[in-house]
Amino acid sequence: MESSPEAPQQGKGLVLVRRQPPKPRGRMETLKARLQQSCRCSVPRAWGLVQDLIPATRWLRQYRPQEYLAGDIMSGLVIGIILVPQAIAYSLLAGLQPIYSLYTSFFANLIYFLLGTSHHVSVGIFSLLCLMVGQVVDRELQLAGFDPSRDGNSSTVNSSVAMLEPGLQDCGRDCYAIRVATALTLMTGIYQVLMGIFRLGFMSTYLSQPLLDGFAMGASVTILTSQLRHLLGVRVPQHQGLSMVVRTWLSLLRGLGQANVCDVVTSAVCLSVLLAARELSDRCRHRMKVPLPTELLVIVVATLVSHFGQLHSRFGSSVAGHIPTGFVPPQAPDLELMWRVALDAVSLALVGSAFSISLAEMFARSHSYSVRANQELLAVGCCNVLPAFFHCFVTSAALSKTLVKTATGCRTQVSSVVSAAVVLLVLLALAPLFRDLQRCVLACVIVASLRGALRKVRDLPQLWRLSPADALVWAATAATCVLLSVEAGLLAGLLLSLLSLVGRTQRPRAALLARIGDSAFYEDAAEFEGLVPPAGVRVFRFSGPLCYANKAFFLQSLYSLTGLDAGRLAARRKGQGSELEAGEGDRMEGRDPGSSQARLVPMVAGFHSVVIDCASLLFLDMAGMAVLQDLRRDYRALGVSLLLACCSPSVRDTLHRGGFLGEEQEAENKQLFPSVHSAVEAAQAHYGQLVATDSAL
C-alpha cells in the first residue's frame, strides 16, 4: 500500500496520515480466486486435509512412549474402571438396557481418539444428556402404547396405537426404546457435524457459563427426582411434559407407604459409602495418585450380596437383569422416528456441543496447547453419527471423568483406547456377572455423581456479588428446569443471557473524565478524588457501542453530565433567533443520565469544547453516525466544538464512510485525535486563538 506524502505537523505533535487503501477486487474475481485456492490439489495439500480431519495422524507421529505411555495406561485403566459402573447406572436415566451404555462408551472413546483435538477430554455417556434422552424415549414409548415404568418387553397397552406403528408387534419395549434412542442420536450427530462443517463453533459461546451451571443444577435436581423411585423401590407413573419434577414428587409422596424396605436400606448404605468416599477423595486428592474406585467396589459388593442373599426373589428388589455379551449386528436408525425427534435433537446438540467445547478449551488453556472448536464439533458429531448404527445413544465430554483422567497422568488420547479396551473386556466376558445387581445401587451411583453439580448452589451468593445479571440467568435457568422442563430451562436461560447482553449494550456506563494531576491520563471524576477537570473542556466517555438501541441513552447521558441539552437549546435558538435571553432555560446538573426529561441550561454553559473518548466505543451503526452528526451541528450552533479521541480503526472507517470527517485530511486532523490529552490541548489552543483574535478586534 502506498502512503501519503510527508505527514503534516499540527503544533508540536505528529498527525496520523491514512494510507491509501488498495483497489478492491470485484466479487466475481474474489469468488474465482477462492474457488481456485480451494480446488487446488496436491499431495501435501491432501495430506494436510487428512491431518486436519483426523488429528491423530499428526500427533501420533510425535508420540513419545517413554514419557507418555505410563500415564496414558494408568489414566485409561482408571477411567475404564469408573466407566463400567457409570455406564450400567446411566442406562436407567436413558431408559435403556445396560448393554447399550457399554456400546456407547466403547465406540465414543475410539472415535474421539481419532478425531478429537483435546489431549485430556473424556468423551462418553453424560448424565444430563442421558436424562434428556430418557425423557424423549419415555415420551415415544407412551405414544407407542408401552408403559415406560415397566422393565423388559412389556406388552402393548394401547393396541390401537400399536397398529399405527409398522412392525411394532414384533418389537418389544426395549427394542422400541433403542430404536428411538438411535434415531435421536443420529439426528443430534447430524446437527453437530453440520455445525462443524459450516464453522458454527462460535455458537456455543452464546451458552454462557452461568447458563450452563444453572442448567446443570436444574437438570441434576431432575435426575435426582427421577432416581428416587429406584432408591425407594416405589412404582410410580412416569410423568412427562411440563412440571414433571413436581408431579413426580407428589406421586412419590402418595406411594411412600409402598416403599421396598430392602431397597431403602441398600440405598442408605450405598449412598453413605459413596458420599463419604467422595468427600475423602476431595480432601486427600493431593496425596493419592489414583482415585479410589469406590463405584466399582460398591457395585461388586452389592452384586455379591444380592446374588447370595437372593434379594430379588425374597424381598422383591428390582435387579438389572440379564446383560448379554458381544455385539449385535448394526442397524440403520428408523427414518420416521428421526423426523419425529428432530426438534428434540436440537437441544441435545447444543448442550453436548457447548459442554464439549468449553471443557476442551478449559483443559487446553491449563496445559498450554490449543484446540479447534469446529473440529471438536466434527469429533463429537461423529461420536454420535457412527455409533447410532451400532445401538448407541448421545454422548459428549464429561467433566468428572476428564478431571480424573487429568489427575491420573493422562498425556494424550491413547488413554481413551485403554479405556475402550477395559469396556470391551466387560462386553465380551464380564457383563453377565452383573445380572443380580440391584437397580437401587445403580441409582445410588447416579445420585452420588450429582454431588458436584448440586454443590454449585453455594456459588450463587458470590456470583450475585460479582454480577447480578449472571446470577439471575443462573437462578432462572435452574428454576425453569425444575418447575417446567429441561428444554424450557435451556431456552429460558439462552433468552435471558441474550437479554442480559442486550441490556448491558443498551445502557452502558457513561462518565465525565478529569485529568490525573499533571499527567496525560484521564479518569472518571465521580469515581476518583483529586482529579483536575480541564478548563473549558468536558471529556465524556461512553463504555459501549453507539447504535440504534442506545442512541437516546447516549444523548441523555451526555446532556446530563455536561449540564447542557444542546439539542433542545439549539432548536430553541433556531426558533427564537438571537432574542433568547441568557437566563432562560433549566438546569440538568445532577440529573440521572437515564432520565427521559431533558431541560435547558443557560447559554453560558461553562465550557467551549466537548471531547468524546472513543476508546471503549466498540462500533457505530447508521443511527449512531446520525447522532454524532446532529450533535456536532447542535454544538456548532451554540459555539461549542466537538472532538473525538482514541477512535479504533473500525470506528474511524465508519466515520469516513459516513461522511462525518469529510474528504480532506486536514478536516480529519481537526476532529480526530490519538489521545484524550492531545484533543484537550488542541481544544484549549484553538479557544485561546479565538479569544486572542476577539481581544485584538
TrEMBL record:
<keyword id="KW-0812">Transmembrane</keyword>
<protein>
    <submittedName>
        <fullName>Sulfate anion transporter 1</fullName>
    </submittedName>
</protein>
<feature type="transmembrane region" description="Helical">
    <location>
        <begin position="337"/>
        <end position="357"/>
    </location>
</feature>
<dbReference type="InterPro" id="IPR002645">
    <property type="entry name" value="STAS_dom"/>
</dbReference>
<feature type="transmembrane region" description="Helical">
    <location>
        <begin position="412"/>
        <end position="430"/>
    </location>
</feature>
<dbReference type="GO" id="GO:0016020">
    <property type="term" value="C:membrane"/>
</dbReference>
<dbReference type="InterPro" id="IPR036513">
    <property type="entry name" value="STAS_dom_sf"/>
</dbReference>
<dbReference type="InterPro" id="IPR011547">
    <property type="entry name" value="SLC26A/SulP_dom"/>
</dbReference>
<dbReference type="Pfam" id="PF01740">
    <property type="entry name" value="STAS"/>
</dbReference>
<feature type="transmembrane region" description="Helical">
    <location>
        <begin position="377"/>
        <end position="400"/>
    </location>
</feature>
<keyword id="KW-1133">Transmembrane helix</keyword>
<feature type="domain" description="STAS">
    <location>
        <begin position="536"/>
        <end position="683"/>
    </location>
</feature>
<feature type="transmembrane region" description="Helical">
    <location>
        <begin position="257"/>
        <end position="278"/>
    </location>
</feature>
<feature type="transmembrane region" description="Helical">
    <location>
        <begin position="474"/>
        <end position="499"/>
    </location>
</feature>
<feature type="transmembrane region" description="Helical">
    <location>
        <begin position="110"/>
        <end position="133"/>
    </location>
</feature>
<feature type="transmembrane region" description="Helical">
    <location>
        <begin position="68"/>
        <end position="90"/>
    </location>
</feature>
<dbReference type="GO" id="GO:0055085">
    <property type="term" value="P:transmembrane transport"/>
</dbReference>
<dbReference type="Pfam" id="PF00916">
    <property type="entry name" value="Sulfate_transp"/>
</dbReference>
<dbReference type="InterPro" id="IPR001902">
    <property type="entry name" value="SLC26A/SulP_fam"/>
</dbReference>
<feature type="transmembrane region" description="Helical">
    <location>
        <begin position="290"/>
        <end position="309"/>
    </location>
</feature>
<feature type="region of interest" description="Disordered">
    <location>
        <begin position="575"/>
        <end position="595"/>
    </location>
</feature>
<keyword id="KW-0472">Membrane</keyword>
<feature type="transmembrane region" description="Helical">
    <location>
        <begin position="183"/>
        <end position="202"/>
    </location>
</feature>
